[in-house]
Amino acid sequence: MTVLAVTEHRRGELRDVSFEIVTAGRELASELGTELELAVIGGDVDDFADRLNLDGVGTIYTVEEGEEFNHGVYTQAIEQLYAETEPTALLLPNTVNGLDYAPAVAGRLDLPLVTDVIGVEGEDPLEVTREQYGGKVETTYDIDADSYAITIRPAEWPAAEGAGEAAIEAFEADIDEDAIGATVTGFQEVSGGDVDISEADVLVSIGRGIEEEENIPLVEALADALGATLSSSRPIVDNGWLPKNRQVGQSGKVVTPDVYIAIGISGAVQHVAGMKGADTIVAINTDPNAPIYDIADYGIVDDLFDVVPELIEAFGGDVPDV
Amino acid sequence: MKILVTVKEVAEVDDEFGISGLDIDASDLEYNLNEWDDYAVEEAVQLSEERDGVEVVTVTIGPERSEETIRMALAKGADRALRVWDDTLEDAQYLDVSTKADIITTVAEAEEPDLVLTGVQAGDDSNGATGVAVAERLDYEWAAVVNALDLSDDVASVHRELEGGIEELTDVELPAVLTIQTGINEPRYASLRGIRQAQRKPLETSSLEEIGLDESVVETPVERTDMYEPESESDAVIWEGDAEETASELAQFLRDKGVVEG
Predict the structure, then answer these.
(1) For B13, which residue in chain A has the nearest alpha carbon?
(2) Residue at B98 is within a domain
(3) Does A146 share its domain with A28?
(4) What is the rounded distance in angstroms from the CA atom of residue A70 to the CA atom of residue A51?
(5) Contact residues on chain A for B129, CB-CB shorter than 8 A
(6) What domain count does chain A have?
(7) What's the mean per-residue pLDDT of chain A?
(8) What tens digit of pLDDT does each residue of A39-52 get?
(9) pLDDT digits (tens, 9 = 90+) for A68-81
(10) pLDDT at B234
(11) Of A135, B80, B161, B188, which has the most beta carbons under 10 Å away?
(12) Does residue A186 lie within any of the structural domains?
């Protein structure tokens, strides 16, 4: 009858989502009139449990099993913990690692799964909210089941604070190593390259709106004229138009410049995760409904191919022929 | 070796759109090959070009309209295609992860591929869950969010793209399901020759019954109850005027802010 939330860590550190899932879990537990329990699997579980001993957490189960994430270990441990604690709601992070085990856990436990949830409400049935069509619409779903699994979007709930009085219990999971056919052999950081965009005071950042690789010199000229650094959203790097070290967002760099000029960037949640800390955000985008305007301080709703050349000229630069 | 690739036709929404009931007006949607699946198809085709005896089979859950998308995957180099659709699927409110995973699993059980490649997610529903759900049902190994792949006879050595510019290096035993992230390769454009050849490649359509499932596969305890445009949280100051005027406003702002010279 509880809410069981699974936390996440990497290379010795609890990830932010672990504290956000406590907030989401408290909210859900309060809707359901039940208690929030946490699972900490792998790593320095005692230290992690101490840090997660936050207001509103009933019990923290620690599973001492390996240093780093392994989806086989997580799947088996959660399956066993579920059998032991019989939660109503299994709450998991909608992260790269969360999506590496949540569908498997839901499959084994025969639970309905709703991913990337941004809101929870009501008791029976529970109503969850998620985004679709790249954030252009929100949809709500009623989950009419005795128990279910939900993954929550990172950075959607604030990090939980306030010391708690949770009971910390070691849970002995019986892990069948022979059933695990995926082995983590190491980690690799995307190389820094020539430029560190996270150090820049002003970023000129481009997205899909730039349309063609041939148009890149236009924004390079703008960055030059402003004495700014050029960065981009994911598709530009996927296309190989700029190197990986220029990518702003969840899977790229987190940047906090004084001014971030988003040009032809729609503002997908993964991108916003990387630049919302900028002091001032200026958006240039033809679509007035683009999500980038939800976070922008200033905007120009116009074609970048009209605005950017004017801007280059305003700073005495030469407009390249593109 | 056989590689099964999931290919989804996804709906992209126009800037201006309407909502009728629980979905976007059909007239405001355009259909394309799912971006992530494009990379998965490319990865499979490259593997088939690098070694002998690799067959690339695509599987799609979708209406007749999606055959255009499927032909595109065939034109890029897939060998044959399977499509599952019938009135039960047509009439369902929407298809949840479990329904899609059950269908793809059933097809995979008949095909017995060594490797299944899916996109990380579909651009419209963004569940990000079907690939791993299929792996669990097939009792295959898996890896989610793969942005580099090195395949040997019985192991796929992959990079998983974690958040914050970190990649996890993982060895995955075959058979396996890998969910493919954008940027892993450079998807090719279909050549004219490829497009011509695609017309002659086998594309087999089956109903649920024909693959051995019944209509209970579409049942789900998760019911869509509403769809709406999120309220704009925008409090941005929008500079009005033609490009020269707005650019001049922005230039003035940047000068006042003291962040640029000149």
Answers:
(1) A133
(2) yes
(3) yes
(4) 22
(5) 99, 102-103, 106, 113, 115
(6) 2
(7) 95
(8) 999 999 999 999 99
(9) 999 999 999 999 99
(10) 84
(11) B161
(12) no
* Domain CATH for A127: 3.40.50.620
Per-residue model confidence as pLDDT tens digits over B36-75:
999 999 999 999 999 999 999 999 999 999 999 999 999 9
**Residue found by looking up tokens 């047509």 in the block:** B90
Which residues, in sequence order, are bridge partners of residue B186?
none
Are the C-beta atoms of residues B150 and B157 closer than 8 Å to each other? yes
Q: State CA B167 to chain mean position distance.
A: 21
Looking at A179, A207, A224, the residue that finishes a domain is A179
Measured between CB atoms, does B33 come within 8 Å of chain A?
A: no
Q: Does B154 touch chain A (CB under 8 A)?
A: no
Contact B248 A314 (CB under 8 A): yes
- Written as six digits, the tokens of A147 are 């128990």
Whether residues A125 and A85 share a domain: the answer is: yes
pLDDT of B262 strictly over 60: no
Which of A101, A132, A143, A236 has the highest number of chain B CBs within 10 A, making it the mutation to test binding with B? A132
Domain count, chain B: 1
Minimum distance, in Å, between the CA of residue B28 and any CA atom of chain A = 12
Facing residue for A144 by CB, picked from B130, B141, B221: B221
Report how far residue B144's alpha carbon sits from residue B117's, in angstroms, rounded to the nearest whole number: 10
Pairwise CB contact (< 8 Å): B96 & A112: yes
| DSSP codes of every residue in B44-109 | HHHHHHHSTT-EEEEEEE--GGGHHHHHHHHHTT--EEEEE--HHHHHSS---HHHHHHHHHHHHH
Could you say which residues from 200 to 229 on chain B have a Cβ atom under 8 Å away from some Cβ of chain A? 220-229
The reply to whether residue A131 touches residue B126, judged by beta carbons under 8 angstroms, is yes
Residues 67-126 of A with CB under 8 A from B: 69, 71, 75, 94-97, 99-104, 106-108, 112-116
Nearest to A305 by CA among A232, A209, A188: A209
pLDDT band at residue A192 under the 50/70/90 scheme: low
Yes or no, beta carbons of A238 and B183 under 8 Å apart: yes
DSSP B124-182: TT----HHHHHHHHHT-EEEEEEEEEEE-SSEEEEEEE-GGGEEEEEEEESSEEEEEPT
For residue B142, what pLDDT is reported?
Answer: 98
User: Comparing C-alpha atoms, which of A113, A120, A117, A100 is closest to residue A41?
Assistant: A100
Instruction: Specify the pLDDT at position B72.
Output: 97
Measured between CB atoms, which of A10, A185, A252 is closest to B165? A252
Q: What ipTM was estimated for this complex? A: 0.94
